[in-house]
Structure formats: C-alpha cells, structure tokens
Amino acid sequence: MTYMNRSGTTVAEAMNFYKLDPEDLLVIVDEVALDVGTIRLRASGSAGGHNGLKDIEAKLGTADYPRLRIGVGSPTRAARKDFVLGRFTDEQLADLDPALNRTCDCVESWLNDGIQKTMSLFNASE
What is the pLDDT of residues 8-67, one digit of tens each? Predict the structure, then answer.
C-alpha cells in the first residue's frame, strides 16, 4: 500500500512482473480540472499537475500510457489537498454516482474495443 502521489514504483513493479507494455496500463485518477462527473480518456499525455501521474511517468520513463480522469470539480475556498481528500457534498455525489457507472462502462470498452474506439465513444461530449 502506498499513497497515490507515490504510486509509480508500485505500477512499474506490477508492469515488470506481468511483462506489460505501457499501452496495456490504464490509470484512473481524480481530476480537479474537470467538472464533477465528467470523464476523459486519453491514450497518453501530460500529468497535468497530478502528482500521481507525475510519479508514474517518472518511474515508467514515459507519458505514453492510457489514463482516465474522473472530474471531482475544483476547490473554491478549501486548499486543493483538503478538497481532494475531503468528502463529497450530496450535490457532488448526485453527479458522481452516474459518472462512476459511466467509468465502468468506459473501462470495459477499453478492454474489449481498444483505446481509439473508446475515446470516440466516451469523449464525445468534449
């Protein structure tokens, strides 16, 4: 067990053990830059300020791995750390619950249909 911000070592060890390539990995993270309930799938890209993604990128030596971001909204008055570690409001939960179901559908599509088709299906509202 480790903190999300230090998950790169664990991810790299699991990938080495199972002999996986970066495109076989799907990292799912919270994202303050997206509205609550919005999901966004990418085949690769920057960490976008997300410390967990930064650590994974550093340990893998590449940013070329799929990532699925789930929007949690941005902090208004609370510090970012307190915001992402805090509890969701009832209003946020109402938006988040269907997004988690959509996230599961997205992961299943990624597994069965690949990244390109899944991005076209689940990123359509961008």
Answer: 999 999 999 999 999 999 999 988 888 888 999 999 999 988 889 999 999 999 999 999
| CB-based contact 6:37 (threshold 8 Å) | no
Neighbours of 109 (CB within 10 A): 18
**Locus of tokens 């199972």:** 18
CA distance 82 to 7: 20
What is the CA 107 to chain-centroid distance, rounded? 11
The CA-atom distances, in angstroms, between 111 and each of 26, 35, 101, 119 are 9, 25, 16, 12
Q: How far is CA 75 from the centre of its chain?
A: 18
Q: What angle do CA 10, 66, 89 make, to 5 degrees?
A: 80
